[in-house]
Write a structure and sequence with these properties.
With 82 residues, the protein is α+β, with helices and mostly antiparallel strands. The chain has helices spanning 2-30, 65-70; strands spanning 33-37, 44-46, 60-64, 74-75.
């Protein structure tokens, strides 16, 4: 009899935990860090150290996507192919 009671409870907790983790993943994606070249002419942010960063003569910074967008950067066409 106890098994019948705990199984629905376990399933409902599992579903709630899954829904919570999806919400966290969504929030975490907004806080993903990217690489940018800290120069006036740089226009893109990068997901990794790609060939687009090879010409950077300035410091390469690791910042959040939201900060990169505030600085006027857009997604690198090499890193973020669609």
């Amino acid at each position: 009899m106890k098994t019948k009671f705990f199984l629905p409870l376990f399933l409902s907790l599992s579903i709630a935990a899954t829904a919570f983790s999806f919400g966290r993943t969504e929030n975490q994606s907004k806080e993903t860090t990217v690489l940018i070249c800290n120069s006036q002419n740089a226009y893109a942010y990068h997901s990794h150290k790609c060939s687009g960063l090879q010409r950077c003569k300035s410091e390469i910074l690791n910042i959040k996507v939201s900060e990169a967008k505030k600085r006027g950067k857009s997604a690198c066409k090499i890193c973020y192919k669609h």
